[in-house]
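Researcher: Predict the fold of bis(5'-nucleosyl)-tetraphosphatase (symmetrical).
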Amino acid sequence: VLSSDEIIAKSQKKLSHGRFEHCVRVSQTAKELAKHYGVDENQAALAGFVHDYAKEVSVEEYIETIKSQDFDQDLLNYNRGIWHGIVGAYYIEKELKITNSAILTAVKRHTTADTEMTDLDKIVFMADYIEPARHFPGVEEARKLTNQNLDLGVAYQLQQTLIYLIKNNFKVYPKTLASYNVWNVK
Ligand code: DGI
Ligand code: FE
Ligand code: FE
Ligand code: FE
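Model: Structure tokens for bis(5'-nucleosyl)-tetraphosphatase (symmetrical) follow.
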């Protein structure tokens, strides 16, 4: 087990300054949401802090890892945007020695969401979207909904993300669409 100082030091080395600061803000936001929703605050703070740990791993290294570590080979059809959560958890376990499956799963689900999510998963997913330095149109609505009910926040984020992906002709990862279908039921 690494100390929190060691996890912070390794993250600082792995990430640009700006992304490291984003991780600190997501950690704080996740901790606040955890307090509000009766979830383990330390677990939320740690999951939030490490969620983007692998965001700057090189494309070459990701491809090598996906090929050698028994990942779904369909991942090769996507990019770092998708890889840094699903494959990122592998780096967090290997390099930060975090083995807690609730934390690793929250990291895996933080970009695409999933059809099944724990409150911790939802908290990390939403904290990433609404941390204080996020300024896109709709972020105030996202903050309001997330404080009312986590599921409303998740549904809103998935809707906004799908609109954005389709508007910009980006590929939709099947899990993102499946999640939209589950969390936006009408
Ligand atoms: O890592 P962050 O930038 O802090 O945030 P994130 O991990 O939530 O990534 C957000 C980005 O991921 C956002 O630009 C939308 C993109 N994304 C989410 N679902 C999909 C996706 N990109 C593609 N191509 N396909 C998806 O299904
Ligand atoms: Fe991310
Ligand atoms: Fe996110
Ligand atoms: Fe993030």
